[in-house]
Structures are given as structure tokens and as C-alpha cells.
Write a structure and sequence with these properties.
- There is one protein chain.
- This protein is of the alpha/beta class.
- It has 2 domains: 5-358, TIM Barrel; 372-490, no CATH class.
- 41% of the residues lie in helices and 17% in strands.
- A 6-stranded parallel beta sheet has the order 6-5-4-11-10-9. It has a 5-stranded mixed beta sheet with strand order 16-15-14-17-18. Strands 1-2-3 form a 3-stranded antiparallel beta sheet.
- β17 (463-468), α21 and β18 form a beta-alpha-beta unit.
Length: 493
């Protein structure tokens, strides 16, 4: 049991939690963004991150500090918090990124962890092997064994109150990610980053990101705080939280500002292409695109970085509120409509609905049926799975319209896409209070028909009649022959 991480709220696999970082004396509410700070290039003063932006934790690279003589000596003498001027929690990376980029680094896990402890890091990282996407399985498995050895080396280091990351690797093989997660969770380490996903995100392969993360989550224990390494674009935060990620780190706010790029929740814009600033953060409230373009290079970069960070943190607060109110999947769907690759990610998420359903609350805010994909949400599957619990009379009319005042049936229930048959006693309970289109599409009707079919099969002694409103034959064909059909569009003609 990891006492330093407490989960407060759930929606799907998303959660709000509290991560205690004892060496810093700080508790970080998750989901949380850790801005990446390069100790050699401070785009935004780290002290302002805490006082003005409300950031409780940041991440910096201990390998860069270790490899830069003047910075290393200052870090050892002053300590990392004084060096950066930041009194929140500081996570340090180990140089694994440089290992992936350049093929070798001149430091071991034991050496870099001892160095991270010496400079005052609060959450440290061993030297794992970030295996790129799409490598052959043999290489992915071999790299994973090397990472598992690094975790064993890390567990053997006396780190005191310093938390230690246990990276989860495995390339694009979900089963290897699951194995890696299970192994990492079996150690005494504390935080569990899913690594080597940046190439997937850079390639807009969000469906693969979802499969990788949920593979890792299947191996990890529920009380494992999960860090998605290198993720921090606001457009994908809702999707990543819905997969069960708790921590994110981002250099995007600064790197994109350097290139004149302006972040939004639906993508990235080039400052030179903007006529208006679609944001009300302090930077956008005080500037126009023209005034930003006319600023000096350093000033423009700083202001764009501040905007980028503001919009990212705003989205994270929006995600937290969605988790708390039970509307996270609705937010994910709205964000997914901003880019086709994000839509692929959302659809991939719903492919794992059984995994989401395991932690999804039974009751929450209003279910909004926004598209055909709503039929694949975990709430619909859960309702269908429980239709066998309902008691049925000898004859039952299921109708898509208001029940008739006079009829010859023992009972009349409404059929509500995508859920299907709804007994009157449950009509005002979640999720059957759903807001749905008055003209449901074929997929929503198909899910409702599946509910009718399941009810009929679970209660074979009940005579079930289904009164539909000219539904398509391909939908009605999903019903068993035992269900009698009435077409409300033609009845009485």
C-alpha cells in the first residue's frame, strides 16, 4: 500500500488524488502538470511558477546539471531548490532522454540517484531505457529487462525521504507494458512514469498512446501514481487523464514559444497567422497578435511561454472539475472533435470500456449522448449487464414513444437509446436521465436494440413486444425472433 498517494474522486479511469512528497514537505493535487525547467535557460522564473501560476511541482534534468560544471557545483553547494528559486516539489530526470537521443551516457543508476539525492531532489529517476515505438519485440523485451535491472539498482540505493520513479517501458506492445507495470508495482518505488511516448504524441498517434497507457495500467496497482512522461499539450490532457494518468511534464510551453507557436485546447497556432487571441489569460488580455509580433525576441518568447502555460493549467483545472462532476468522457469527446487523431484516441479509449468500467462511479452527473461513440461508453455496457436483475411481468410492451394510456399489456416501458428498455421505477436514476438527441443515429438505436435483445433473452417467459419508430432493418435484425414488432410509423394505416 502506497500511503503517499490518496485517491479522492473517480470518473472512468480518471481520478483526482493527493501525492505527498515528504522531502519537499508538499502535497501535490493530481492531475498535476510539472513544467520542465532547463537550468541553463530559464524562460519563466521558477519562483513565479509557484507564486503566480500555482504550480506545486516542476521537473528538471539532473544529467544536464551533473554534466555542466558550474551548475553542478552550485547545485551541490546551494541545493536544487535554492539554485532554481522554487520551494515546491522538484522531480529530476536521469538522462534517459539523452540516452535515447544519443545512444549512451556516462552515468549509472546508482551514481545518478546518489547525485539527485545530494542536490536535494524530491522525486528522482533511475537510468531506464526508453524504447522507441515499433521496434521488433525482441529488442523491446531486452530493453525492458535492462530497465528492470535499473529498478532493482534504484531500490538498493538509500534515498531517505526522496521518492523514486519506476519507469514503465515496453515500446508499442501493450502486453509488455502490462508486464513492466506489474514488475514496477512489485518494487518499493513510488511513482510510475509511462515512458517513451513522446514519439507517438509527436506523430499524432493518440490511439497508440491510449493502448500503451492502458496496458501499463493493467499491470500497475490502483494506488500507483502514474506519470505520462513528456505529455503536456492542452489538447490531449483530458484523454490522458481519462486513461488514468496523474502527472504530466511539459517543455512544450517553452519550446513552442521559442518557435512562435501559440497553444490552444484544439491545437497549435502560429502567432504570425493570428488576427485575434482566442484566450483571456493575462498575456492575451493585455496584448494583440500584432503587439506580440512587434515585441523583441526574448520578450515575445517569454510572453508566449506564459500564455502557453496559462492555457495548459486552465485545461487541467477544467479536467479536474470534469472528474469531480462526472463529465470527463463528455469533455474528452469535445476535445476529440478538434482533431481526427484525437478522435482515434477517444475511440481507442472506448475499446477498453471494461477496464474503464472497473473504476467508473455507478452514479454521477447527467449522461450526455453526443455521438455514435456514446453507445460504447462504460455506463451503457454496465446497464446492459444488469438487465437480468429486473423483474418482468408475463407481457411487456417496449416503446420508443410515450406509452399509450390504454393497452392490453401487463406493463409498458420506454426504450431510450442507447440504453434500451427503461422501467418506470428507474427512469429518474443515473444514467437513464441521459440527455440524448431527439433523432438518434443508427449506432445509438443499435445499442438500444441490443438492450432489448438482452432483456428478452434473460427473461424468456415474458412476451416482449417492441414498438419502434420506423427503425432500420439492420437494427431490428439484432432482435431475437421471440420479440414481436410494431412499427409506430405505419400502425393503423
Amino acid at each position: 500500500m502506497r500511503e503517499q498517494f490518496e485517491i479522492r474522486d473517480h470518473d472512468g479511469a480518471g481520478r483526482i488524488g493527493r501525492l505527498s512528497v515528504p522531502r519537499a514537505g508538499v502535497t501535490v493535487e493530481t492531475p498535476a502538470l510539472l513544467p520542465v525547467i532547463n537550468p541553463n535557460v530559464l524562460t519563466i522564473d521558477p519562483e513565479r511558477l509557484r507564486s503566480e501560476f500555482g504550480v506545486d511541482a516542476l521537473i528538471t534534468n539532473s544529467y544536464i546539471i551533473h554534466s555542466t560544471d558550474r551548475v553542478r557545483e552550485r547545485a551541490l553547494e546551494e541545493g536544487l531548490h535554492d539554485l532554481l528559486g522554487f520551494d515546491g516539489a522538484i522531480m529530476t530526470d536521469s538522462g534517459s532522454f539523452q540516452l535515447a537521443e544519443y545512444g549512451d551516457i556516462d552515468v549509472t543508476t546508482t551514481e545518478i540517484l546518489e547525485f539527485q539525492h545530494a542536490i536535494g531532489s524530491d522525486i528522482a529517476t533511475p537510468v531506464d531505457v526508453p524504447t522507441p515505438p515499433d521496434v521488433d519485440r525482441e529488442r523491446a523485451a531486452a530493453d525492458l529487462e535492462t530497465t528492470e535491472t535499473a529498478l532493482a539498482d534504484a531500490a538498493a540505493v538509500d534515498t531517505g525521504e526522496m521518492l523514486v520513479n519506476a519507469p514503465v517501458q515496453g515500446s508499442t506492445y501493450p502486453d509488455l507494458r502490462e508486464r513492466a507495470g506489474r514488475h514496477a508495482a512489485g518494487t518499493d518505488l513510488d511513482v510510475f512514469p509511462v515512458g517513451a511516448v513522446v514519439p507517438l504524441m509527436n506523430g499524432y498517434r493518440y490511439a497508440d498512446v491510449v493502448d500503451v497507457v492502458l496496458g501499463a495500467k493493467r499491470g500497475l496497482d490502483p494506488d500507483c501514481p502514474v506519470h505520462l512522461f513528456g505529455a503536456g499539450h492542452p489538447m490531449m490532457l483530458a484523454l490522458a487523464v481519462a486513461c488514468g494518468c496523474d502527472l504530466f511534464d511539459s517543455a512544450a510551453y517553452a519550446l513552442m514559444a521559442r518557435d512562435g507557436r501559440y497553444l490552444t485546447v484544439s491545437g497549435t497556432e502560429h502567432l504570425e497567422d493570428l488576427t485575434y487571441l482566442p484566450c483571456s489569460c493575462p498575456v492575451c488580455a493585455d496584448h494583440t497578435p500584432a503587439s506580440l509580433r512587434d515585441a523583441g525576441d526574448a520578450e515575445r518568447e517569454r510572453l508566449l511561454a506564459e500564455h502557453n502555460l496559462h492555457v495548459t493549467l486552465e485545461e487541467l483545472r477544467r479536467v479536474k472539475e470534469a472528474v469531480r462532476s462526472g463529465s470527463l468522457l463528455e469533455l474528452v469527446e469535445r476535445r476529440a472533435r478538434g482533431h481526427p487523431a484525437m478522435w482515434d484516441g477517444y475511440r481507442a479509449l472506448l475499446d477498453h470500456r471494461e477496464q474503464l468500467e472497473a473504476t467508473d462511479p455507478v452514479s454521477k452527473g447527467t449522461f450526455f449522448s453526443l455521438s455514435a461513440e456514446s453507445a460504447r461508453r462504460p455506463e451503457v455496457a454496465r446497464y446492459h449487464d444488469r438487465l437480468d436483475r429486473l423483474s418482468l411481468p408475463e407481457s411487456l410492451l417496449l416503446t420508443v414513444t410515450k406509452p399509450p394510456s390504454e393497452h392490453e399489456y401487463d406493463a409498458v416501458w420506454r426504450v431510450k437509446p442507447p440504453f434500451g428498455p427503461v422501467p418506470p421505477a428507474l427512469a429518474e436514476t443515473y444514467p437513464l436521465t441521459a440527455e440524448a438527441p431527439s433523432r438518434p443515429n443508427t449506432e445509438l438505436c443499435r445499442a438500444a436494440a441490443d438492450g432489448v435483445a438482452r432483456l428478452a433473452r434473460e427473461h424468456p417467459t415474458t412476451e416482449v413486444t417492441f414498438a419502434h419508430d420506423d427503425w432500420e432493418a439492420t437494427v431490428l435484425d439484432r432482435l431475437p425472433a421471440s420479440v414481436a414488432l410494431e412499427n409506430l410509423a405505419t400502425i393503423g394505416r
